[in-house]
Amino acid sequence: MFITFEGPEGAGKSSALAVIAERLRSQGREVVTTREPGAGDFGKNIRQILLHGEDLDPKAELLLFLADRANHVSSIVRPALKSGAIVLCDRYADSTVVYQAHGRGLDEEFARVGNSFATGGLTPDLTILFDLDPHVGLSRLESKDRMDGQSIEFHLKVRAGFLYEARLNPMRWRLVDASQSQEAVLEECWEIITPHIQSNI
């Protein structure tokens, strides 16, 4: 079972993922948590460039995300799925379409084809979208990386891009109102995930 957590900055997806993982483990399930960019030694180096390095040409940025994803899928995600684990991933291919195509204005079809090539066609079984007004999300951040520091116009495009992608594939995407309390968000995520996990036993 492959579940991805997506959403704009400050939406709380990383914190929710960690709690959900522990709940699943407490039930005796094997769970692998991972993220993009930044999984594994290769990913950590790419993450440093993407989030904490100098400004990049948008095309170079896109290609670095794809390189990270190709390595991430082959070295972490596919082996974990093959072993029977539930994989919870903080960001995946949808973020590239949203940030680099919808946000940066790069070619959307190229981003989708690039994702397919990098992942070998691996698509999540379920994607949870933590939807939040960017003004609210950015105000929650104690510190900002290179992506967080983009203009509010960019972040508004990102939110709109996520909502657009969710409408394209309602069978895979589930939307959570991330402006709720942390407890309410967690319970809503749990209610979404539980039937999917049970149906894949």
Q: How does this structure look, described?
A:
With 201 residues, the protein is α/β, with parallel strands linked by helices. Helix content is 58%, strand content 13%. It is built from 8 helices and 5 strands, in the order βαβααβααβααβα. A 5-stranded parallel β-sheet has the order 2-3-1-4-5, sandwiched between helices. The longest helix has 25 residues, at 58-82. The mean pLDDT is 94.
- Biggest pleated sheet: 5 strands, parallel
Strand order of the largest sheet: 2-3-1-4-5
Count of structural domains: 1
The CATH superfamily is P-loop containing nucleotide triphosphate hydrolases
Helix content: 55-70%
Kindly provide the name of the CATH class: Alpha Beta
**What's the tally of helices?**
8
Helix and strand topology:
Blueprint: E1 2-6, H1 13-26, E2 31-35, H2 40-52, H3 58-82, E3 86-90, H4 93-103, H5 108-119, E4 126-131, H6 134-140, H7 152-168, E5 173-177, H8 182-199
Parallel strand pairs: 1-3, 1-4, 2-3, 4-5
Summarize the entry for a quick read.
58% of the residues lie in helices and 13% in strands. The chain has helices at residues 13-26, 40-52, 58-82, 93-103, 108-119, 134-140, 152-168, 182-199; strands at residues 2-6, 31-35, 86-90, 126-131, 173-177. The radius of gyration is 16 Å and the shape is globular.
